[in-house]
């Protein structure tokens, strides 16, 4: 099983539309495009209105790619779990949007403004067309390794906090966690090193790193030409965190179980005033997915958006249970509340998408429930087995997702 959700791509689609570039209707609707692979690369963009100079740039890049580059990129996304199944038969009837409150969050507003200062929207357009915004994700996923020298946060500001939490998470949950690694995702590092970028492009498009050096140079040239991209340090490149596992995967690739922590998502939480606890909440949530992997908790009778929502709300609850528990992070009430707010911020209104993770209210309430389980336990020193907590969650789930529009 692979879980790799690329938030950056959907943000770029939204931002590119805001910058005035021409995209088809299905690409412009970001509520139904939560992942990089929801679009076929070239077909997801309208190239009919390019100027001759712009077309020349596209042609120049395509000349460095294999003829079947689109198929290769699609295959790579599927191979590493970057594809979301559409569940077209059931998705349109799974959830009624009219039953739920769903507001735009401060984090969404922040994310949608990350490219506001772009001087040349065509640069963003081309990078999105050719998968450039996904390069840091592939770099961290395929080549990242846990190391004492790793840093978390743009300036390493979360390194000590997250490293300590990761050790405690491994002690807390009743799973085999020794092999789970925590890996940082830094955008600027990837685009500052042509050899490193070429190695990543070889994963995305095939051939050897040497074959992709010219393409790497073109990507770096374009990124450096647009100040708003900050040489790849713009949070949009790394606005993500995700868990990855090959447990029970029929075609494992030898990548270790891992949690990728992107700088961008932590910058976003800092921007809205939640940097004190949000990174810990994100890590606790993603570790919750590893509990789900090993305990086979992704399996349920639900399908489409309802299935994804269940697993994400469960991870919210598991993460907050850990953060609140006296043998976890033992956060005080104010910090637990901020944790719940951080989960609220990543709620979405993508009711018909297979990537729907729950509304802001549902995510807040799931987190609140996880905290209450820890706080209300008669034996504060006892850690519930994961399967016991799961059974409690399954009973609570209908209440967590019931309509709240009134």
Automatic annotation (TrEMBL):
Lineage, top ranks: Bacteria, Bacillati, Actinomycetota, Actinomycetes, Kitasatosporales
Signal peptide limits: 1-27
Region (Disordered): 30-49
Domain of life: Bacteria
Amino acid composition bias (Low complexity), ranges on this chain: 30-41
Swiss-Prot/TrEMBL keywords: Signal
Protein name: Lipoprotein
């Amino acid at each position: 099983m692979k879980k790799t959700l690329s938030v950056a791509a959907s943000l770029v689609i939204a931002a590119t539309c805001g910058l005035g570039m021409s995209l088809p209707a299905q690409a412009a609707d970001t509520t139904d495009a939560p992942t990089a692979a929801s679009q076929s690369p070239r077909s997801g963009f309208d190239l009919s209105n390019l100027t001759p100079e712009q077309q020349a740039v596209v042609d120049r890049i395509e000349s460095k790619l294999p003829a079947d580059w689109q198929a290769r990129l699609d295959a790579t996304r599927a191979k590493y779990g970057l594809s979301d199944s559409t569940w077209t038969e059931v998705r349109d009837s799974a959830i009624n949007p009219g039953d739920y409150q769903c507001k735009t969050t401060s984090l969404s507003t922040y994310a949608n403004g990350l490219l506001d200062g772009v001087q040349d929207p065509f640069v963003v357009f081309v990078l999105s067309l050719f998968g450039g915004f996904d390069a840091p994700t592939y770099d961290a996923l395929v080549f990242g390794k846990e190391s004492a020298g790793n840093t978390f946060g743009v300036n390493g500001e979360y390194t000590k906090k997250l490293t300590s939490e990761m050790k405690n998470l491994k002690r807390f949950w009743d799973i085999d966690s020794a092999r789970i690694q925590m890996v940082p995702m830094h955008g600027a590092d990837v685009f500052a090193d042509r050899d490193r970028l070429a190695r990543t492009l070889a994963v995305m498009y095939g051939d050897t790193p040497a074959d992709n050096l010219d393409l790497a140079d073109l990507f770096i040239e374009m990124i450096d030409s647009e100040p708003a991209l900050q040489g790849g340090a713009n949070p949009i490149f790394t606005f993500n965190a995700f868990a990855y596992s090959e447990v029970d995967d029929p075609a494992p690739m030898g990548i270790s179980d891992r949690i990728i922590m992107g700088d961008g998502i932590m910058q976003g939480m800092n921007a809205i005033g939640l940097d004190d606890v949000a990174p810990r909440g994100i890590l606790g949530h993603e570790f919750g997915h590893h509990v789900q992997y090993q305990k086979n908790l992704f399996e349920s009778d639900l399908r489409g958006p309802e299935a994804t929502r269940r697993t994400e709300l469960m991870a919210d609850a598991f993460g907050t249970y850990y953060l609140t528990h006296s043998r976890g992070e033992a956060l005080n009430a104010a910090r637990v509340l901020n944790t719940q707010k951080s989960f609220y911020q990543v709620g979405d209104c993508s009711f018909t998408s297979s990537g729907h993770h729950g509304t802001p209210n549902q995510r807040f309430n799931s987190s609140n429930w996880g905290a209450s389980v820890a706080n209300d336990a008669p034996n504060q020193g006892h850690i519930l087995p994961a399967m016991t907590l799961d059974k409690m969650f399954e009973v609570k789930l209908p209440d967590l997702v019931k309509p709240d529009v009134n």
